[in-house]
Amino acid sequence: MKDEKFQIKLNVQIGESLDNLKTETYSVDVDKKMVVLDAVHELQATQLPELAVRWNCKAGKCGSCSAEVNGKPKLMCMSKLSDYNLKEPISIRPMKTFPLIKDLVTDVSWNYEVNKRIKPYNHPNSSEYITMQQIDVDRVQEFRKCIECFLCQNVCHILRDHDLKDKFVGPRFLLRLASLNMHPLDTENRLGDIKDEFGLGYCNITKCCTEVCPEIIPITDEAIIPLKERVVDEFYDPIKWFLRKLFPKK
Amino acid sequence: MTDLQEEIKKMEKYDADVLVVGAGGAGLRAAIEASNANTKVIVVTKSLLGKAHTVMAEGGAAAALGMKDERDNWKVHFRDTMRGGKLHGNWKMAEIHAKQAPQRILELEKWGAVFDRTTDGKINQRNFGGHKYPRLAHVGDRTGLEMIRALQDHVVHEDNVEVLMETTITHLIKKENRVIGAVGYRRDSGNLVLVRAKAIILGTGGIGKAYKITSNSWEYTGDGHSLAFNVGADIIDMEFVQFHPTGMVYPSSVKGILVTEGVRGEGGILRNSEGERFMFRYIPKMFEGEYATTEEEAKRWLADNNSGRRPPELLTRDVVAKAILSEVKAGRGSTHGGAYLDIASQRSPEYIKQKLPSMYHQFKTLAGLDITKEPMEVGPTTHYIMGGIRVHPETQSTTVSGLYAAGEVSAGLHGANRLGGNSLSDLLVFGALAGEHARNYSNTISKYEEIDNSILEPIVNELLEPFKGEKTENPYLLHRELQHIMGDFVGIIRNEKDLTDGIEQINKLIEKSKSAGAKQGRKYNPSWHQALDLKSMLITSLLLAHAALARKESRGGHTRDDFPETNKELTQILYVLQKDENDGIKIHEEKMEDLPDELHQIIQGGDN
Ligand SMILES: Cc1cc2nc3c(=O)[nH]c(=O)nc-3n(C[C@H](O)[C@H](O)[C@H](O)COP(=O)(O)OP(=O)(O)OC[C@H]3O[C@@H](n4cnc5c(N)ncnc54)[C@H](O)[C@@H]3O)c2cc1C
Ligand code: SF4
Ligand code: SF4
Ligand code: FES
Predict the structure, then answer these.
(1) How many angstroms away from the CA of B476 is the closest CA of chain A?
(2) What are the start-end ranges of the E strands in B315-409?
(3) Cβ–Cβ of B524/A101 closer than 8 Å?
(4) Of the ranges B16-20, B255-259, B604-608, the best mean pLDDT one
(5) Looking at the structure, do residues B376 and B252 belong to the same domain, yes or no?
(6) Do B23 and B45 form a contact (C-beta atoms < 8 A)?
(7) Residue A41 and residue A4: Cα distance in Å, rounded?
(8) Which residue in A2, A16, A64 is closest to B51 by CB distance?
(9) Are B470 and B371 members of one domain?
(10) Helix extents (H) in B214-312
């Protein structure tokens, strides 16, 4: 059984540098069960072989195909055409927050640099096998569902509008820090880094990150807010403050 | 200076004691092992870090930890692997794998991986096809993501590892019988790259993109297979391709995308259009007595994993895939030509959503179907290649000095059919071994070899060829042609006539592909990448077809309708592919080493 083919229009942003960008309209053959990435591939195979687009799994598992579809940050491989009004052209643009490489592809390497600055997981020294209960790792596992699509980074206004990449690591990495912080066995203390170097205070809980996360991770409520509470407990609790004065950490 | 010399001068140049090609589980585990204060490692990957195929793995990693069921141990895992591979696997690799997999999984946990837990707080393990006991350490149905993230986060903190993302290696350079470097290009800038290396590890994964219906991504173009073949390494077992029984069959745009075996591991059952649970009719002789023969018995097993034998849906993949094909052929297929996979009638909606969240999401989004309420439609999809580069079982060295291979690109462990879950553990075990031995080898080489222009000129010329004006064939459409040839002539069910025709067609396509052209511009230009990837796919496809023609029997992932039976005489026969003097393919037979008695007994023995 074959699905019927019909034509839709795509408005695609083409170009390599900000001064030679153009948005072109293309007609492509699709069927109603296709996703946006299929339409882009059809365009690439039949009309625009040099069109730059990043993708891998085509199943929402790798986080490669992030773009702005009709102005909304999306994984192109999980955006069904049938969810759009196909009488109008669908607009497809690269993520805005990261430097453009070409067409739909941006340079996301900054994210990888941030990750290097986060102290890795530190397992306790023990010759015995240490058990962990499921209930104690549920939340950490939920955070570790992150596929690094960087859509949350793309919408966070602190990175997108204020470009404070040198001061703030963004929701993806606050999430990663929370997953380490809440790991029942991790022995590293990163709260100081989280407060100062990683800029937790910049987040003003707009929840835009949570809204776009394709993995539906409650980034703000479950990761960022609890981190903020822990930082407050650690640094602004008068008793702890006093103890820290007495016994400074090395 | 000529244009070519100018290009060579402009190449980005690197030196690495050990060059690792690939950043999947195998490549990353190898890089971690290889690097130390004196050993500089460079990892190159075609995509971004953390996006390799490994990230897509769903069901789990097999290791006889015995945490879910204490009866499990390495011997049972070894036996299951050998029998799953139809006794054609490399027994030494199977032994090493079964013995070392548990420690590799525990190590991952120490690096921060968080597996699902048992009620007493240990690593939970799930049932999977061909594994006698629950053996797969897992995280819901996103185990690969957990694994690659743990490895990735570990590798970025190694001081002596540099990662070149979105960089493709296209040529290995050899001097006498030793590899001394590699050439490739960067996607972002289009720059050409030269890496001088003392040892090279290939962890490039599989070949599935040569087929249209596949669970694999664009990266799986057989680059490692063709890189190794081109420098004269032995390639074996290429006829053994795993067609996974459960790929999505509808809608057509997602045809081939994987439905994890975890669905059956968690209790999912297969039915035909008449509502019959047909797998009971397909239990092969070799496994007689080990699987439930009635629905009632299967149900008891599902309740406690102990009373009653395992349901036949958990037979090995080759068996299930062929059973579905037979049902379809007999006119009992599902609406879109597959079988019905039903978990809704077996488990509660909450259980399904907790254990199979990404399957739930995948069907909901891509097919508009709720798997907690309705059955899925599934059919075979190209999934994994058992064959590949021949390696030494203990060191992962290939037949070319300084060249190592691990993971899906290497061959041996899985024989004629891989058990689900055995790949992820394979990556860890043999990735680590490859890393260790490549490092040791690199320490014996005192200096980098000079690679002069006479070597580089033809390579650079070949790389830039698609930009020449007279090249007019569209590389995407050539790729589609290849996929049709492979599906029609070198598919699941094969015979001499089809294979011979297929080889002829591939050869014609190779000629035609010499005119594959790219649009101008080197920066992130997929038409150029596609034209170059096509070369690897064509060579690999040809190797596969030749091996399939040579093996005149049916076994595991290789099925011939002109030789439908398994031939005992061929159990230990390898078809070895090599490059001949005229850059063609030559093939010869070799007999594998005999199994030592004690291992033989483990395989024969009923219970351990
Ligand atoms: C959907 C799906 C689900 C699966 N589920 C399971 C499971 O549950 N359990 C299990 O055991 N197995 C599973 N498998 C199989 C398993 O995931 C793969 O076999 C395994 O991940 C391969 O790992 P690898 O390290 O060999 O290669 P990959 O992870 O594929 O990595 C290959 C790397 O090589 C790079 N590369 C390739 N060519 C070049 C080149 N020319 N230059 C530079 N870099 C290159 C790629 O960019 C990539 O980084 C699954 C496979 C799929 C497709
Ligand atoms: S909640 Fe915080 S991190 Fe998330 S988008 Fe808003 S400001 Fe950024
Ligand atoms: S947290 Fe969600 S949106 Fe952000 S990178 Fe991870 S998966 Fe993407
Ligand atoms: S291609 Fe992997 S998430 Fe879209």
Answers:
(1) 6
(2) 339-342, 376-385, 388-390, 403-405
(3) yes
(4) B16-20
(5) yes
(6) yes
(7) 18
(8) A64
(9) no
(10) 223-230, 262-265, 295-304
Length in residues, chain A: 250
Strand B192-202 relative to strand B178-186: parallel, antiparallel, unpaired?
Answer: antiparallel
B583 in any annotated domain:
no
Domains and CATH numbers, chain A: 6-106 (3.10.20.30), 109-239 (1.10.1060.10)
CB-CB contact of A164 with A154 (8 Å): no
- pLDDT greater than 90 at residue A240: no
A104 neighbors A21 (Cβ within 8 angstroms): no
On whether the CB atoms of residues A155 and A209 are closer than 8 A, the answer is: yes
Q: Domains in chain B: how many in total?
A: 2
**Ligand 4 shell residues, CB under 6 Å:** A 55-58, 60-65, 75, 77
Residue B27 lies in a domain: no
**A188-216 per-position pLDDT tens digit:** 999 989 988 999 999 999 999 999 999 99
> Nearest CA to B273 among B344, B332, B195, B317?
B332
Top residue of B28, B250, B258, B365 to mutate, by most chain A CBs within 10 Å, is B365
Q: Please state, in angstroms and as integers, the Cα–Cα distance from residue A8 to each residue in A23, A30, B41, B201, following that order.
A: 16, 7, 48, 46
How far does residue B130's CA lie from ligand 1's centre (Å)?
A: 21
Instruction: Kindly report the nearest CA distance between residue A244 and chain B, in angstroms.
Output: 29
Domain that holds residue B484: 465-570
CB contact under 8 A, A54 and B48: yes
Instruction: Show Cβ contacts of residue B205 under 8 Å, excluding neighbours closer than 6 positions.
Output: B22, B24, B26, B52, B53, B219, B220, B224, B407, B408, B409
| B145 to A145: CB separation less than 8 angstroms, yes or no | yes
B471 & B348 share domain: no
* pLDDT per position as a tens digit, A25-83: 999 999 988 999 999 999 999 999 999 999 999 999 999 999 999 999 999 999 999 99
The token pair at B407 is 């993971």
What is the ipTM, given to two decimal places? 0.93
Nearest CA in chain A to B467: A50
Residues B332-345 pLDDT 10s: 999 998 999 999 99
Evaluate whether residue B131 is within a structural domain. Answer: no
Give the span between the Cα atoms of B263 and B341, in whole angstroms. Answer: 8
Decide: residue A188, CB within 10 A, 0-12 exposed, 13-18 middle, 19+ buried: middle
Pairing of strands B573-579, B403-405: unpaired
Question: Which residues of B belong to the active site?
Answer: 244, 264
Query: Does residue B152 lie within any of the structural domains?
Result: no
